[in-house]
Amino acid sequence: MEAARVAGELIRRFIGRPEQTLTKSSPHDLVTEVDKACQDVIFDFLSQMYPDSSFLGEETVAPGADAATLAAQEADRRFLWVVDPIDGTLNFIRGLPACAVSIGLVVAGEAVVGVIYDPMRDEMFTGVQGQGAMLNEAPLRVSDVDDLSTALLASGFPTGAYRGKNAEQIRRFGQHARNVRAFGSAALHLAYVAAGRLDGFWENDLNAWDLLAGAVLIKAAGGEITDVKGAPYTLETRHVAATNGRIHRQLLLDLDMD
């Protein structure tokens, strides 16, 4: 939480006026100098507290590298911190207040702690395996919506080859669900499912740093997270479905129509 707050202060200071913007894997995939600075701050902070740690961060992986494989290879280390310093970089660049710091902890291959911090709203979402989830000082619990037709869902627009497929799924769920949102941050989408603000989220072609902290939150708040075929979530999951648990099978059924 402290590391996320330190990075969040940088986000508040520079949102809407990043020092430098670069493209990574595609024109849709952007990074700024502030992303890198936030990641350095987080790594430095945590490495001082936990000197035996390993780190996997979005800005340390070369464009085009298989991040899921890297995550799985590192997962059996004693402590593996999986970090997205700014999830929602395009929002950050444009000054839209919908971005977050995401920090997840893997111990001996198991995701056990998740922190997602929205610095613009000062909302700290935390989850610990077996101990529940919190938003600041309040306990979190997923919603009790039990039918897809009354569900509020969220998704996004991947930067790579799955962009069109995800757009088609959004169109379909726009007809079947109550409505669909796209805030531009997978971490916030997952946190909002855990908080009961959304009932479900899916997206294709994500990475461990996009998902790990949110996966811990979802489980700790009583929800369900799998891949889009229903297999349990792991560090190698790239196509994800997360819900309050009550609409999970309905969501998967619609996704299986592809």
Structure notes:
The chain has helices at 2-14, 33-49, 67-74, 89-94, 163-176, 186-194, 208-220, 248-255, and strands at residues 21-23, 30-32, 54-57, 79-87, 100-107, 110-118, 123-128, 132-135, 138-139, 152-154, 179-181, 200-203, 224-227, 240-243. It is of the alpha+beta class. It folds into 2 domains: 2-139, Fructose-1,6-Bisphosphatase, Chain A, domain 1 (2-Layer Sandwich); 148-255, 3-Layer(aba) Sandwich (D-Maltodextrin-Binding Protein, domain 2), CATH 3.40.190.80. The chain has a 7-stranded mixed beta sheet with strand order 3-4-5-6-7-8-9, with helices on both faces. Strands 11-10-12-14-13 form a 5-stranded mixed beta sheet, with helices on both faces. Strands 1-2 form a two-stranded antiparallel sheet. A hairpin with a 3-residue loop joins strand 7 and strand 8. Helix 1 packs antiparallel against helix 2 (33-49). The termini are far apart. Residues 23-29 have low confidence and may be disordered.
